[in-house]
Design a protein that fits this description.
Elements: H1 3-19, E1 38-39, H2 43-67, H3 80-83, H4 91-104, E2 116-119, E3 133-135, E4 153-156, H5 164-167, H6 174-181, H7 195-203, H8 207-213, E5 218-220, E6 229-231, H9 243-251, H10 264-280
Parallel strand pairs: 1-2, 2-4
Antiparallel strand pairs: 3-4, 5-6
Helix pairs in contact: 2-4, 2-7, 2-10, 4-8, 7-10, 9-10
The chain binds zinc ion.
Protein name: Lysine-specific metallo-endopeptidase domain-containing protein
GO molecular function, one term: metallopeptidase activity
Keywords: Signal
Length: 287
């Protein structure tokens, strides 16, 4: 989602939060992983989100094992899963991004990237049909346009808990791997997707993620309802959040390009594609 969309979405969220301040009372009884708090989530929704975060921990761990080998970035940028989305010279920023994403899904590092996860009610702004999630990009100290300072939210839409691409889990046992990789030659990208992919994409939009990863500040001009602010999180280049758009960003000649690692889906798509390439022994994953 582009910043201007975030703004209108966040503005309407203020009303939603006031109208339905109910918070899951039992969130302390489940193991904490990643977010500071789950807001408005049922026990079943919270369990599904925690499972997706466990998968995000695993999917980010795989490239990290090569990004940091005795302090040296040993990742081969010619691997197709990487070369689809990034350039050779992007390796250190991508490594820093994955360190922060890995920390964001790690219960022991949950303060490194601070965020809450809110389970949205049916039909709120930002959760149109087919939408899975969105994220508040404001820095934590941002005040204005109805926003107060505080930990920002990844908001998960009802579809997250029903769509196959977000309810699917990463395989763990050999039996699960066999099922996941079955018919791999004819499978498309979204048939390998899991909830970890969507959470990774959204978490990278957080200002706290960009700060943890060492991203430079970018300025958001003032809008109708909001004063200007600097933010450090990722964007959705051309307001599109598809793997194909990430591949175009890497190789195209558009004049308005952002850095590859500043595009949320480039990080998310690489994480999934590298997992599939490694676990299923598949060189290319068609879109
Ligand atoms: Zn996005």
């Amino acid at each position: 989602m582009k910043i201007s969309q975030f703004l209108s979405v966040s503005l309407s969220l203020v009303g939603v939060a006031r109208a339905a301040p109910a918070r899951a009372k039992d969130h302390e009884t489940l193991q904490r992983r990643g977010p500071k708090e789950y807001l408005d989530c049922s026990p079943e929704q919270q369990a599904a989100l925690q499972a997706a975060l466990e998968d995000m921990f695993r999917i980010t761990d795989k490239p990290l094992q090569e990004f940091f080998v005795d302090g040296i970035n040993s990742f081969d940028p010619n691997k197709l899963a990487y070369a689809h989305y990034f350039r050779n010279e992007d390796r250190d920023m991508v490594a820093a991004a994955f360190k922060a994403l890995h920390d964001a899904a790690n219960p022991a590092m949950s303060l490194a990237v601070s965020y809450n996860i809110q389970c949205a009610a049916e039909g709120i702004a930002g959760c149109a049909s087919g939408d899975l999630a969105f994220t508040q990009p404001f820095p934590e100290d941002f005040v204005g346009g109805g926003e107060i300072a505080g930990v920002r939210k990844v908001v998960v839409c009802p579809a997250f808990f029903t769509e196959s691409r977000t309810t699917r889990r990463l395989p763990e046992t050999q039996e699960e791997i066999d099922a996941y990789c079955q018919f791999k030659e004819s499978k498309r990208f979204n048939e390998f997707e899991t909830g970890a992919h969507t959470l990774l994409h959204e978490i990278s939009h957080l200002d706290s993620f960009g700060l943890a990863a060492g991203y430079p500040a970018r300025n958001q001009p003032a809008g109708l309802h909001f004063p200007t602010f600097d933010y450090h999180g990722t964007d959705d280049w051309h307001q599109i959040s598809t793997p194909g758009n990430g591949r175009i960003l890497k190789s195209g000649n558009a004049g308005d390009k952002i850095e590859t690692w500043e595009n949320a889906e480039s990080l998310a798509a690489f994480s999934l594609e590298y997992w599939v390439a490694t676990v299923c022994g598949l060189e290319d994953v068609p879109l």
